[in-house]
Write a structure and sequence with these properties.
manganese (chains A, B, C, D), 3-stranded parallel beta sheet, L-rhamnose_isomerase (chains A, B, C, D), isomerase (chains A, B, C, D), 16 helices, homotetramer, metal-binding (chains A, B, C, D)
Amino acid sequence: MRITKEQILDHNQKQSKEHNESFSFLADQLTSQNIDVEVLVNQIASFEVSIPSWALGAGGTRFGRFPIGGEPGNLEEKIEDVGLIHALNRSSGAISLHIPWDTPGDAAAINKLAEDLNITFDAVNSNTFQDQPNQEYSYKFGSLSHTDAKVRKQAIDHNIEVIKYGEALGSKALTVWLADGSVFPGQQNFRKALERTYQSLEEICNALPDDWKVLIEYKPYEPNFYSMVIPDWGTSLLLANKLGVKAKTLVDLGHHLPNTNIEQIVSILLMEGKLGGFHFNDSKYGDDDLTTGSIKPYQLFLIFNELVEGTSGKDDLEQNISWMIDASHNVKDPLEDLLQSVEAIKKSYAQALLIDRQKLSEARQSNDPVGAQECLQEAFQTDIRPLLREARIRSGAAANPIGLFRDLNVRSELINERGSDTIATGL
Amino acid sequence: MRITKEQILDHNQKQSKEHNESFSFLADQLTSQNIDVEVLVNQIASFEVSIPSWALGAGGTRFGRFPIGGEPGNLEEKIEDVGLIHALNRSSGAISLHIPWDTPGDAAAINKLAEDLNITFDAVNSNTFQDQPNQEYSYKFGSLSHTDAKVRKQAIDHNIEVIKYGEALGSKALTVWLADGSVFPGQQNFRKALERTYQSLEEICNALPDDWKVLIEYKPYEPNFYSMVIPDWGTSLLLANKLGVKAKTLVDLGHHLPNTNIEQIVSILLMEGKLGGFHFNDSKYGDDDLTTGSIKPYQLFLIFNELVEGTSGKDDLEQNISWMIDASHNVKDPLEDLLQSVEAIKKSYAQALLIDRQKLSEARQSNDPVGAQECLQEAFQTDIRPLLREARIRSGAAANPIGLFRDLNVRSELINERGSDTIATGL
Amino acid sequence: MRITKEQILDHNQKQSKEHNESFSFLADQLTSQNIDVEVLVNQIASFEVSIPSWALGAGGTRFGRFPIGGEPGNLEEKIEDVGLIHALNRSSGAISLHIPWDTPGDAAAINKLAEDLNITFDAVNSNTFQDQPNQEYSYKFGSLSHTDAKVRKQAIDHNIEVIKYGEALGSKALTVWLADGSVFPGQQNFRKALERTYQSLEEICNALPDDWKVLIEYKPYEPNFYSMVIPDWGTSLLLANKLGVKAKTLVDLGHHLPNTNIEQIVSILLMEGKLGGFHFNDSKYGDDDLTTGSIKPYQLFLIFNELVEGTSGKDDLEQNISWMIDASHNVKDPLEDLLQSVEAIKKSYAQALLIDRQKLSEARQSNDPVGAQECLQEAFQTDIRPLLREARIRSGAAANPIGLFRDLNVRSELINERGSDTIATGL
Amino acid sequence: MRITKEQILDHNQKQSKEHNESFSFLADQLTSQNIDVEVLVNQIASFEVSIPSWALGAGGTRFGRFPIGGEPGNLEEKIEDVGLIHALNRSSGAISLHIPWDTPGDAAAINKLAEDLNITFDAVNSNTFQDQPNQEYSYKFGSLSHTDAKVRKQAIDHNIEVIKYGEALGSKALTVWLADGSVFPGQQNFRKALERTYQSLEEICNALPDDWKVLIEYKPYEPNFYSMVIPDWGTSLLLANKLGVKAKTLVDLGHHLPNTNIEQIVSILLMEGKLGGFHFNDSKYGDDDLTTGSIKPYQLFLIFNELVEGTSGKDDLEQNISWMIDASHNVKDPLEDLLQSVEAIKKSYAQALLIDRQKLSEARQSNDPVGAQECLQEAFQTDIRPLLREARIRSGAAANPIGLFRDLNVRSELINERGSDTIATGL
C-alpha cells in the first residue's frame, strides 16, 4: 500500500482554514518576539528522525507478545512501512537496519525500492545478543568480550559483515549495542572483559570505511542483570576516546539508572565532541521502549535545549548526530506509535529553538534560577503544533498524520495485503 | 534419571569426618550460648521451599534465550526434575504448577509419580498474561480487569479451571499474578480497572474450596510499563481485605520499586494476618528473577528476622505461609540455580533463628541501635553451613548437593535422556 | 509592605492589549470545541492553594543555608508575606501553620491581621521531629511511636495543643507528618512501632473537633534512613481506615520511591474516599522540595487528570481536599518560588479541565492507547496561559505576578523593612 | 580521657580462652585450605582506615539534630577521640581534617598531640559548600564553577590554603568535594560550569606539592537537586585525566544513583590507574551516610573483591589508595559507630583475601557462574571474626572494642570532661 500525493492534498485541503488561522496567529506572536518564523519552519521541516527496522511489528516482553496483524514479513515490506510513515510526515526518510534480521539479499533491488520511497539507510546495527541458527559459537556468555577468542572472532567478523551490508546501501555508521555482561557477582572479571571488548572494537574500527563512524551504545542492565560491559556513558566515552575519531557514543534515552540527568550527559558528550547519535524512546521504569515524549516530555525538551545550545547551527546538528528511534510497541499500532514519536521529537526540537538564548544566558550569568525557569517554560508552554503542521504541509506531508492514517484504514489495508499472522523480525 | 540413596550415602560418607568436626565445634559454641542445637537442626530440616514448574528450563529475556539442554519436555519430566532437587536437598518436596503450561492430563498418574518422588503440589498458578492457541478472546488489554465483560468471564473461568486441576492434585492455594495494567498515561481508568478486578476476584473466591486460599501477587511494572492494576502491597491488601479470609497477599521479592524496605512490608502483612506466601528470588535492578541470596543476602536475612519474630513458632511459620521460589535461569543450570536458592533461603531462616531475641528486644526497648545491629550481625556472621549440612544428612539429603549433582553428571544424563533441543514451557 | 489595588490595575492596564488578543483567540478556539470558557475561567479563578508558613524564608540542606534577606521574623510577617503572594495572584488566600514555629501568641490579633489581608488558616501542622528548648523528653528515637509511653504522651499532648491553636484561628484540619522510624536494621520492632503509632493517633483523633479531619502523611525515608513508621500510602490508608471517617491520607509529591506512579495512588485514595489533601512540590531524586512543576510538569497534569476524573465537580474538588504547597527554597526568592508553584498547579488543573472526557472514555473503552494519549496531549499542549491570566485579572490579581513582584522591588522593600539578617523559622 | 594499655590487656585477658579456641579452629580450617594464616593476620592487622574529623559529633539532617553529649569542642578533642578509637582497634591511626572546621592554630602542638596518640593526618578537605562568617563572596551559586571569576578565585585560594595547612601536618592529599551544581533546569550552563571547574582545579593542581594527590569526589545530587557539576565517576575521571597524574577519583559509597554497580566502577578506575581513595559508609536510599556494612555488607565484600584483584599486593593496596570513612551519626554514639564501620571494612577486606582466586579465575574462564558464586560465597560465609580479633590482640587493640568502650563508660567520661552541650563542628 502506498499513500498518494492526492490523498495528502485532499486531507490537507480540509484542514487548511483552521490551520491557517492558528498558524498565522502564532506566527504573528513569534514575529513580535523577533523570531524569524520562516527560518524556524525551515529548520523544523528539514529535521528528520530515522525509523528502526526492528520496530515495525508488535513488540513484546518475556511474558508474551500480541501480534498486530499486517506486520511486514521481510525487508521490502519494512521499507514500505517506513515509506508510509514518511509519506505521512515527510520527517522519517531513513531506516536503520538490524543484521541478520534484515539482511538485504539483493542490495540493488533494495536500493531501488528505497529510492522510490525517498528512503535512505541510516546506521546499520549488528546483533550479537542472540544465537542464529547454524551459528558456530554461542553468545550466551558474551560476544566481543567473550573469554574465548574464537567467539570474539565470530562476533568481530559479524560486525565487519554488517559494515559491508551497510556500504552496499549507503549507510555511514555502525551501531554496536553490546549486551555482554554478567548475571551474577563473580561471574566476570570486569577489567578483562572490558579490555577484550576494547580489542574487539579496535578490529571493527580498523574495518570501518573512512567516512563512517561507529556508535557505541551503553546500558546499565538487561539482558544481563548484574553488570554490563558498557554500563554507562563514562565507559562508552572511555572506549570512544581510546578508539579514536571514528568512535562516538550513542545515547538511548531508556538506558539509564533511575533519576539520571540525561541532558547533562548529552551536554558533556557534545563538549567532548563524542556525541554520535540517539536512540529515542521514553520510559518510566527501565528500558521500557515507549513512545518518545509519552512519559517525560519536559525531559525531552531539556535534552533538545542542550542540543541546540551545544551545536553550532542547523547543519552541525542535523549532519553530525544520528537521529534514530528505538522503541517497542506492545499495545499500539507500530506505525501510529512511530508517528507519535517523530512528532514529539520534532516538537521538542522546535520548542528548544524558541528559547530566548540571550535572556537565558543573562539569567544564568546573574544566577537567576527563577528567570532561567521562566525562560524555558515560555518556550515549553508555547503551543507549537501549528508550526509543525505548517512545516509538514509545506513538505508535502499530512496536516494530521495519524488522522489520515486512520481515515485511510492503513492497518486494515496492510492486513488485507499481508494477512493477520505475519510476524516482523525484531524485538 | 533418579538419584539413589546409595549415591547419597556414599557422597556423605566421604565428607563425614570434615563435617563432623565443623558441626561439633559449632554445636559446642551455640550450646554455650544456650541454644538448643537439636531443636535448631530439626527446625532447619523440616523447612521446605517449593519449586516452580516454570523455572526448570533455561529462562530468557525479550532479547533472547539460550537453551541448556535436557530440559523437561512435559509435566512428568518437570516433576522428575523436582524429584532430583528434592533427593539432593530433602527441602524441596513440592512443586508449584502453572496452567496451561503444565495442565495435568491424567491426574492420577501425575499423583502417583509425585508420590513416588515424595513430591506434593503447592499453589497452582493461572496464566492470563499470554494468549493460548484457540483462545477466544485476547488478553492483550487485560484479563480480570478488561473493559469487556466477555474477556473477564474467560479469565475467571480459566482461574476456576485451574482450581479444579489443583484440587485433583491436592493443592490448597491459587496464586493470581495479574499482568493487567496500562502502557501509556490515559490508556486505562485506574479506578474502574481496579473495581473490575475486584469483582472478578470475588467470583474466583466464590469458587474456592473452603480449605483453600487465594494469593494475590503485586508488581509495580512489567509487562505493563506505565501502571499495573495491582502495583503494590497496599493495593493487594486492599483487595484481600475486601475479599475476606481466604484472600492473602503474596510477596515476590523482585516486585518492588528501587530501595523498597521489603522486610517492613512483610512485618505489616503479618501483623494484619494477610501474609499468604512468597516468591523468592533476588534482584539488583527490577524483576531480575536471580538466584535467591545472590545479590542481597542481608536483606533476605532481615526478611526472615521478621518472619521468625512475627509468627508464633515453627508450625505457624511452616504451615500458614506458602514458601515458593520464582526465578528465571538465563545462564545457570536451572537445577543448580534452584539448589543454590533453597540453600540461601534456609541459611537465612537458620540465621534468623539464631538471633538472641531477648537481647534484641532489650536493645530496641532502650533505643540502642548499636546493640541491635550487633545482635543481628552476631547471627548473620555465624557460619551456619555445618548446621544446614547436618540437617540435610539427617534427612537423607546430600552433604553437598551441588557437588554431588556435578559428580553424578546429572545434566549430561538428562541431555542423554531428553536430548539437547527440548524446551521447557515457562518463562 | 503591601501591594495596592492601584499598582495591580496599573500593571494590568499595560498588558491588556496583548492579553486580550491572546485570550480572545484561545477563547474562540475553545468555544469551537464546545468548551464553555466562562465556566472554565470561573473554575480556574476560584481554585486556591495554601502557602506553608515554614517556606517563606530561605530553605537549606544539612550542608548549609544561604539567607535571602528580608525573611519574615515572626508569624505576623509570615502572614504579611502570604498577603503579598495573594495580592499578586488571588489564588493563595490561606496559610498553613507549623507549631511551635508559628505559635500564635494573640489569636485575635492574628485573626484580625489575616482578615485584613483576606487570608484564612488551612491545616495546622504539629512538629515532633525536633526537640524544642525546655522540652521534657527528646524525640531523638521517635514521638507517637516511641517505646516510652511518657514520650508518646508528650507528643500526643503537643498535637492536641496544636488543634487548639488551630481552632482559635479557624483551621479545620491537623496535618501529622511523622518522622518516626529507624536508621538501622534491627533498631525498631516494626509492628510494635506501628501499633503504638495507631494508639497515639487514636487519642489525637478523639480530641479532634467534629468538623475537623486529620491528614496522615507518609514518606519512605528521611530523616530516618532505614525505615519510617508510615512509609507509604498503604500504611497511611491502613491507619486512616482504622481511625475512622475523620482520618485521611495526605499525599506529598516528593514522598515516594523512584518511579512511583503517583497519579494511580491519588486515584485509588479517591476511590476509597480517603484522599485528604496534598503537599505540592516537585523533585528529581528524593524529597527535593522544588518548585511545583519545575521538573515533571506532565506528571502534575496526570495527577490533576485523576483529580478531575475522581471528584464530582468543582465544589467537591475544592472543598473536600486540602490544597497546600510544601517546598524549600534554597536558591530562589521564596515568594517568587511560591508564585511559580501556584501558577504551575493551576495550569495543570486548567489543562485537566480541558480534557475531552467523552473522547477519553471512548478511547479507554475501545482499548485505543494512541487515541487516549492524543486526547491527553491535546489538553497538555494547549497554551493555557491566557486563561489563567484572564482569571487573575478578573479576580483583581496581577496579569504577571512575578513581573510585578520584580517591578515593585518587593524583596528590596522587605530587606529595607526587616533587614538582611532575619531568619524565618522553618526548614 | 585516654585508654591505657593495662585496660586493654585486662580486657583481652578475660576473653583469651574463648578467643583462642575459635581462632585456632578457624586457623586449622584455613590452613587445610592452603591459606597462610600468619600472612593473613598480618595483612588484616596492618590495614587501617582514617577517621573523618567531621563525624565525631552527632550528625543531623535538615530536619534536626540530637546532640550526644561529650562531643569534641575543638581540633584537639577531635584528635583525642580518634586516639580513643585507635587505642581500641589499632586500625584507625589517621584523621582526615576539614578546613575551616578544623583549622589548626598551632600546627606544632597539634602534631605533638597526634604523635602522642599515634595519629597521622590523612587527606585534608576543603569546604566551599558553606559560607563562613566574614567571607567576602558567597558560595550560594557555586565555588570552583561559579560564573563570577572573583568567587572562583576565593575558592581556589581557600583550597590552596587548605593544602598549606595539610603540609604543616604531613598530609599528602587534598580531597575536593564540590557541591556546585544547579537546583532547577536551565539554571546552569552545564558545559561552561564544567569548563570553569576544570580551570579552577588546574590552578589548585599547580599549587599541589609534588608528592601530593588531589582526590576528586563525585556525587549525583544533594545539596543541588537538579544537577551537580561532577555528578558521576565518568565526569570525575574526565577531569582527572585532563589534570594529569596527581589527580585521582575518590569513591564515596553513598554517592550513586539507585542500583549502581559500584564494584564495577571501582574496577574500571583501578584499570585506568585513577582510583585515589574511598569515603566509606552505607546507605539504603541516597547519601544516607550510615555505618559501613550496616545495610549492604555483600556489596562491600564485592568491592573489596575488586580491590584485592585489581591491586598488585598489600603494599600497593595500602599505600596507593586513601582509605577513609565519611559518615554521619544521627542516632548512634559516633565513636561506637566508627568502631563498627572500621570493623566492617576490615572484615570485608579479610573475606576478600580468603577468596580462592585460582578457582574463581577458572570458573570465569569456563563461564561457570554457579562455580563463581560458590567461590565468593565460600569466603563471604566464613566467620572471619576470630581472625580480626587475633589481628587486634597482636596489635595491642581490644578483643572487643565496643564491649570495652562500654565497660569503660567512655561516653560518660567524655560528658564529664566536656559537658553535655558541646557541639562538634561538622555535618
